């Protein structure tokens, strides 16, 4: 059966609610044949099934985070799944809700990169927005999984919003400070960074210096020995690939000066920064980002939230 006919069978079953017997009578075939047609439609990618789990949040931890860090909003996933992948998917769904609340015609959205940002973009529905624009605010990885890289994520979100996209045509990290400085002054890169400073909303992840969690290590930018050196220098995590100490201060380290992307001071001036990160192991990095004042809206899970609050001394809430 051709794709068009298979799609019709799938539409009868999944959209119109006809049972397989009714479809079999329409087609003049057996129920088992209809079952095979439905399986074939899924195998050919004509059917996508999405299960929307109700997202339970923890208002107590949300209020505690808002109070402890003067956040505008905190979204805390209650009873997070044990598996990291499923946990991140649920956080992406929460993050998509947080982003949708801010969508309006003419909005400029800045996007970083990483698995958390990927899950938010994946969960976003198609919402055409007149005059909107999506801007890549940090350079490209150029290695590893292209789906979590800035250019692809910016393109994907722009497609969902039916908006133009502005790419930052530069690598995330370059070999030397001199190269980084020269690239930042290149006309198209400088223009994109100037536009990035004017976004209304930025969607970012929060990186870790734990070798098991570091996206920079997975992408091949940093070796484990370099991560160890960063930790020895006081780094607990990163925001926009800039290593931070426990209080959220950027380290005076060559790595930070080799990054091509929106500056941390400029990030602070963006009206709304939504950060998505979860898991207790990321608590030091999340706390650093909050202490540094880089986040207005935090999307996290109950385990990470409790760990962050315990580190902050808000033990009554943890």
Automatic annotation (TrEMBL):
What keywords is this UniProt entry annotated with? DNA-binding, Transcription, Transcription regulation
- Sugar-binding domain location is 57-310
Q: Fetch the Gene3D superfamilies from UniProt.
A: 3.40.50.1360, Winged helix-like DNA-binding domain superfamily/Winged helix DNA-binding domain
Q: Which GO terms describe its molecular function?
A: carbohydrate binding; DNA binding
Question: Pfam families this protein is in?
Answer: Sugar-bind (PF04198)
Instruction: State if DNA-binding is listed as a keyword.
Output: yes
Q: Please state the span of the N-terminal signal peptide per the UniProt entry.
A: none
Q: Which family does it belong to?
A: Belongs to the SorC transcriptional regulatory family.
Recorded protein name is DNA-binding transcriptional regulator LsrR, DeoR family
Give the originating organism: Thermoflexus hugenholtzii JAD2
